[in-house]
Each structure stands twice: as C-alpha cells, then as structure tokens.
C-alpha cells in the first residue's frame, strides 16, 4: 500500500529550499547612466524651418558593448568586465541619447531613426568602438567612428572621435563619472563637426 502526503505537508517539505534557489546574479545596488553636460532647456519649440535638422541613428557596437556590463581592455588582446557595474541600458542607446541632447543644445533639430522625416539636413550614424576602461593607461575611453551625410550631398564623411579620462581606480564607483566625462567630450566634438 502506498501512502501519499497531503499537499500542505508536501509544500512544507520544500519550503526550506525556497531561500536557496536563485535565478541569475544578484543585481548591483545601483545602475549607471549618462548625463549631458549641456542639458536641453524645457519649453522652447524647435523648428527645422529655423535650424538645421539631423537624423540620428542608433550606433552599432561590437559584441563586447552589446551588453550592460562595463568592459575593461586588460591587454591588447584580452577583455574583462568591471565587477558590480552595470549600465541602466545598452551603451549604444545611452550614447545616442547623450549625443542627441548635445546636438540639440547646439541648436540642431534632432530626429531619431524611428521618426518619419522627408528631408533631414543631414544623417549621422556610426559605430561606438570603445565605451569602458583601458587598464594599461588607467583611463576611461570612449571611441566613436562617426559617419555623416550632409544636407544636399551624397558624399559620406567619416571621422573617428575619442576621449580618455584618467582614473585612480578601475571599479564600479568610478565607472559612471569617468565614462560620462569621456562620452560628453566625444559628443561635443561630434556636434561641433556636424555643425560645420
């Protein structure tokens, strides 16, 4: 004769195991994000009739940046990630938003790649090549290969922008501030180039 345990007894049997089960790593205390050095004023209307318009596309990235983790170039051929440091969203989205804010603060009407547009004044895209740390130089590094098509032209212009910010330590505490500074420098350089 077989005996079956009541459901309540069966549930009590597995209750102590509930605290031992974990799905995924423990999240960090906070997530990292970017803040534009030149914030956009609230309220004023922007019009492409009075200012240049630019279509901004989401940058492409290598696989090492298609994650929320913060990469560290340990040597020329090895890559690691900063423990306990995660971006709030993928770096390409964070950088595109920062670049849009910087271009807008500089007087451009920025249109995202998902908004319909008939004839933007220009088209800006590119590849975010570095967005993390270089351990050999102890610096935060942002490298962006920008591609620009200017209004009325079919010619494509390409230019590399890079900023390096020295850091005392490569850790989660310094990641956000140092990379934010480097990203703002690159965004300012790209905005100046696009306005020429």
Describe the fold and architecture.
By secondary structure, the chain is of the alpha/beta class. The chain has one domain (51-194): Rossmann fold, CATH 3.40.50. The chain is built from three helices and seven strands. Strands 1, 2, 3, 4, 5, 6 and 7 form a seven-stranded mixed beta sheet that branches. Strand 2 (69-75) and strand 3 form a beta hairpin. Helix 2 packs across helix 3 (172-194). 28% of the residues are buried. The model has no long low-confidence stretch (mean pLDDT 87).
Describe how the helices and strands are arranged:
Elements: H1 7-14, E1 53-56, E2 69-75, E3 78-86, H2 91-105, E4 109-112, E5 122-134, E6 139-150, E7 156-166, H3 172-194
Parallel strand pairs: 1-4, 1-5, 2-5
Antiparallel strand pairs: 2-3, 5-6, 6-7
Helix pairs in contact: 2-3
């Amino acid at each position: 004769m077989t005996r079956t345990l009541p459901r309540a007894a069966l549930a009590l049997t597995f209750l102590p195991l509930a605290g031992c089960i974990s799905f995924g790593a423990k999240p960090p205390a906070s997530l990292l994000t970017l803040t534009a050095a030149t914030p956009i004023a609230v309220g004023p209307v922007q019009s492409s009739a009075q200012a240049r318009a630019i279509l901004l596309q989401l940058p492409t990235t290598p696989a090492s940046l298609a994650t929320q983790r913060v990469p560290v170039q340990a040597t020329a051929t090895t890559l690691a990630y900063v423990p306990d440091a995660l971006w709030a969203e993928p770096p390409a989205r964070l950088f595109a938003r920062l670049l849009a804010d910087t271009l807008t603060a500089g007087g451009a009407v920025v249109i995202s790649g998902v908004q319909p547009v008939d004839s933007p004044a220009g088209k800006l895209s590119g590849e975010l090549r570095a967005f993390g740390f270089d351990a050999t130089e102890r610096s935060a590094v942002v490298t962006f290969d920008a591609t620009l098509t200017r209004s009325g032209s079919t010619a494509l212009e390409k230019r590399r922008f890079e900023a390096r910010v020295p850091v005392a330590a490569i850790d989660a505490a310094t990641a956000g501030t140092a990379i934010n500074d480097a990203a703002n420098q690159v965004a300012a350089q790209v905005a100046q180039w696009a306005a020429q």
